[in-house]
Amino acid sequence: MNLNKYTYVIAVAEAQNMRRAAEMLYISQPALTKSLNLLEEELGVKLFDRNTSPIRLTYAGELFVEEARKILDLNRHLMEEITHIATVQKSRLVLGIPSDRGSVWLPHLIPAFSQKFPLIDLQVVEGNNQEIETFLLNGDVDLALNTLPFHSDQISFEVIADDPIVIAAAKEHPFCQAFDLCRNTLPSPYLIPAQLLKGQNFIALKKGTGIRRISEYLFERYGLEYTFSQEFLRHETTVRLAAEGVGLVITPAHTVTRTGTAGRLAFFSLDQPVLCRKIVFAHLKSRGVSSHGRFLIQLAKDLTVRIPGLVSGPVLPVLPLYR
């Protein structure tokens, strides 16, 4: 597989000088010049403006270099994968995951993965959503089981499931006293106008977490001023405190199910259909996904069907009943 033309153009673009580029490539300058001339003739465009000093890329050259780097990254990844398959040298897969999500998913993922690939060391790195994104960008993890959004366009992802978001409060909380809760359930939260939330006390997760981002997005979208009276690191803590009447909380429906607090809480939504975040497997675009990583992604998709309660069922808001 001859990728010299891509390497040559990138070298000249970086060196901005034919002689220095030839030295970097360990070839003669005439050989490099001839190769570039043939490539430009083949493409029908000039990649470099050689009348300037230093040599500059043309617009076509800039596009060529951008795509050439991607091709070389993909080729490097492909060659690594083929080598690893041939020599059984690839013995590690690093998964990034938020700790709350890990407590639910890892007991299902790790045993099934280890049974399929007993020689592969599946390592886990935990952190909040912002930290997981940083781990991906730095190459510290190969894959991340996380939720959208990501801020970097260097990250690609596959959707695994929807994660419905509700507003919850203890049934005895003063906020709930205006409602007849006979039809209020987690699968059927009451659809309420945003102004009812003005002045309410909310419990929140700390900045950097996915739910904190969603909470701020929700309030800003509806033009609500917001303050969070207390901040915590774990979803479960905020939901359990809400069930004790400490305040309102914005939470994934699945966290309510996992904590067993659904019977003590009332549920609300500002949106119809209900606001959902996406549970995804993410990876760097430039690195792709290994065969072992691909198996892990498919395993996660299969588990959402096979394991009841691993992800939330449908949440469909209904019109509220008032006292």
Describe the secondary-structure layout.
Layout: H1 4-15, H2 18-25, H3 29-43, E1 48-49, E2 56-57, H4 59-87, E3 92-97, H5 99-116, E4 121-126, H6 129-138, E5 143-147, E6 155-170, E7 179-180, E8 190-191, E9 202-205, H7 210-221, E10 228-232, H8 235-243, E11 248-252, H9 253-259, E12 265-269, E13 276-284, H10 291-306, E14 321-322
Parallel strand pairs: 3-4, 3-5, 8-12, 9-10, 9-11
Antiparallel strand pairs: 1-2, 5-13, 6-11, 6-12, 6-13, 7-14
Which radius of gyration do the C-alpha atoms yield? Answer: 27 Å
Helix content: 40-55%
Percent range for β-strand residues: 15-25%
Mean pLDDT: 89
User: Any idea what the shape is?
Assistant: elongated
- CATH first level of the largest domain: Alpha Beta
CATH architecture of the largest domain: 3-Layer(aba) Sandwich
* Largest sheet, strands/sense/barrel: 10 strands, mixed
Question: What distance lies between the first and last C-alpha atoms, to the nearest angstrom?
Answer: 74 Å
Name the structural class. Answer: alpha/beta
Low-confidence stretches: none
Helical segment count: 10
- The total strand number stands at 14
H and E order: HHHEEHEHEHEEEEEHEHEHEEHE
Number of domains: 3
Give me the CATH fold name of the largest domain.
D-Maltodextrin-Binding Protein, domain 2
